[in-house]
Amino acid sequence: xxxxxxxxxxxxxxxxxxxxxxxxxxxxxxxxxxxxxxxxxxxxxxxxxxxxxxxxxxxxxxxxxxxxxxxxxxxxxxxxxxxxxxxxxxxxxxxxxxxxxxxxxxxxxxxxxxxxxxxxxxxxxxxxxxxxxxxxxxxxxxxxxxxxxxxxxxxxxxxxxxxxxxxxxxxxxxxxxxxxxxxxxxxxxxxxxxxxxxxxxxxxxxxxxxxxxxxxxxxxxxxxxxxxxxxxxxxxxxxxxxxxxxxxxxxxxxxxxxxxxxxxxxxxxxxxxxxxxxxxxxxxxxxxxxxxxxxxxxxxxxxxxxxxxxxxxxxx
Length: 316
Description:
Helices cover 46% and strands 14% of the residues. By secondary structure, the protein is α/β, with parallel strands linked by helices. The strands form 3 sheets. Strands 2-1-5-9-10 form a 5-stranded parallel β-sheet, sandwiched between helices. Helix 5 (195-215) links the parallel strand 9 and strand 10. The longest helix is centred in the middle third of the chain and has 21 residues, at 97-117.
């Protein structure tokens, strides 16, 4: 008897390899995926502006980077002893206005190069619930703990999401026609919006993404991270203590499914070797001067040199 299901995922016609350049944007699950790429030493950038939960924030960030926007004093504000930008996550915030503006401009400039050169762009959609500033009507990426009465809360329709995703694809491919875009819906449960409201949000995403892919089938695909969490890992033991975020076991499993479909067979073999090196680098000897440890270091150096001979861009 079969006691579980497994979602079929087609292998990519444009797999990711160590020569690829990957940019990951979106919710906190984009960070989980980005950290996996980082661990396995791929050429990877993730969430330069911090976590961006909804597609309009991701679209605006991409527009900033590709248009060469220069941030100025009107783009930031002071609150709770920090300078913030409504278009970036609070991890970018800074006690000094000048330092924040410098960081914002440096990030957009460097990300322009990364998107222009990217072979793959991974976009993870977190929630379709958005906040709009009442005084300006502007949709924000992050409220920065400003009192909620200064915002209205809205749910993006599947139509508006689809239009935003289409603009993202068009903007990226106008600059970088060879870039392949992988969409996924975050498996993180945004229960602060409400249980039913979270499902409503995810449903709008799923409808919009699939309709977008039908329109741009040559440039975009869908990876079912949300569906893997909901169907293959349908048990609370795969959640962290908050019962909202996937735990490390779930993240590892979803990454494994992603790797099987989107990473080349040759690169998967390299990943196995790099994983061995990474674990060896964490080794703490009892005696650093011992002959046994020196032999261990020599073998480790040989492994690293073998990787660098074929992949000089890898940095340990």
